[in-house]
Amino acid sequence: MEVFLFPLVNVTLFPRTIKPLNIFEPRYLAMMKEAAATKTPIALGYIEDPSKVTPVNAGEPVSFVREIAGYGYVQIIEERVNGTLLVFLQGQGKLRLGKVIDSGTPYIVCESSIIPEKTILEAPQKSKLNSLQKILTRWIHTHISDPQQQDTFMRNLVHPEEVVGAFASYLVRDYDLQQMVLEFNDINEKVLFLHRLMESNELTV
């Protein structure tokens, strides 16, 4: 699968979550519009060290981003008078980034392969997921003052992947740990990992 690559420092896109993004750089404005028009997926590449960002050549992997990335489809919410965009990137899953394709575009186009995940929650982890959801619910009511926004947020927390993605995005303070959660291939491993973080006080709460 071909994907457009949007590299960002300390940002991870989880499946079944929505990432709002303000786009202002010309090449990424062009990328978002092209992705929306052609329904091309965008991979959100996690940059660990901005000082190591280097030019990339066709046929080579992108060395300055993590190989595993969340991907999704873009929805343009607002095009402002100054040309900048507010977009929502709707997470669909995760993939392994491959080599750069010679696309002739000012942004990076990559080969990629989708990574399948186990999404069935086993019985021993259900109580742990419930604990995570209770903490996330408390965080929502503490940090989001608008009742309508609270309700919208809560209605989107139906599946385990949605709870895990939102919990990792908003309550895990360490960005590398967020990326670690994404890289697990089993929802049960993700729940166990987040529950341990909760017990060790590695959260923003």
TrEMBL record:
Coiled coil: none annotated. InterPro entries: Lon_prtase_N, Lon_prtase_N_sf, PUA-like_sf. PROSITE patterns: LON_N. It holds the Pfam family LON_substr_bdg. The lineage of its organism: Bacteria, Pseudomonadati, Bdellovibrionota, Bdellovibrionia, Bdellovibrionales. Residues 3-202 form the Lon N-terminal domain. This is LON peptidase substrate-binding domain-containing protein.
